[in-house]
């Protein structure tokens, strides 16, 4: 078992705890870069889909997993990022400027919406964000001259540093673009957690009363978390538009918001790894079910709602038996092997992280 002795504050906020962890993530990065040499174009497309969902999961994880604010309206911010990026490019801006601006504009819109919304707590905040997700559908239709309304939009191929990037004809180039955005968003998230602002997010999540007593400005911290969360989500939405090839008012529905929330719960709330584990489940579950259905019932049989039902059943099982998600289970297995044969049965008993006065919020 590796034991880390932290002798200073710098040791506690180090980007990588030790060289072994650095080597593991460096190996994962090298594997990601060489993946197009190992897989065919179909599976490269599926891995690209996983990375896009992971970026969206990082956005929601920052708000829900790190700050404790439940949102069921992040599909609206996916739509804002997607449409804003396309409109800016149609206006003549190059992708290298339009893409970052799309995320920033989405973050500003999210921060403005957060001013009234974050006066709510718990289930009331979730209901308010559901209303936002439903309203986004009607707003897209009403803004038909800019959004294309029901007909939708078809984004052009990306031109970046003289290279043309397109999801269908050049999946490898598109994969590397999405991989670069994923690495940047992950490093941004990780460095944010090391900063005083990231620690303020965690304090608000665990106890607003205690955070306020320590000098954390609750409203400002929540608004900042909402803005940064929407910024990352907007970038994921822009990439989703390119991945789909076409989008309209029905593309970013309430189901997407619910799927995002379930994804980070299954992956593991409050951890970067949870966003990636949940994205793998969301991206590959339809393919697995299709293969199993074809093997058992034959390829021509359609079962409406099969994917939604199975995904919901997986969520229920995780809530009942493993609330910490896939990443939490991995940590328990790893720790058990590290401590064997001295591991105790009740060493992973959950502790309450809220005050009695905050249970009903």
UniProtKB/TrEMBL annotation:
It is found in: Cell membrane. It is a multi-pass membrane protein. Keywords: Cell membrane, Membrane, Transmembrane, Transmembrane helix. The chain crosses the membrane at residues 20-38, 44-63, 70-89, 95-115, 122-143, 174-192, 224-245, 251-269, 276-303, 309-327. InterPro entries: ABC_transp_permease, LivM-like. One of its GO terms (molecular function) is branched-chain amino acid transmembrane transporter activity. One of its GO terms (cellular component) is plasma membrane. Its main location: membrane. This is Branched-chain amino acid ABC transporter permease. It comes from Parasedimentitalea marina. The lineage of its organism: Bacteria, Pseudomonadati, Pseudomonadota, Alphaproteobacteria, Rhodobacterales.
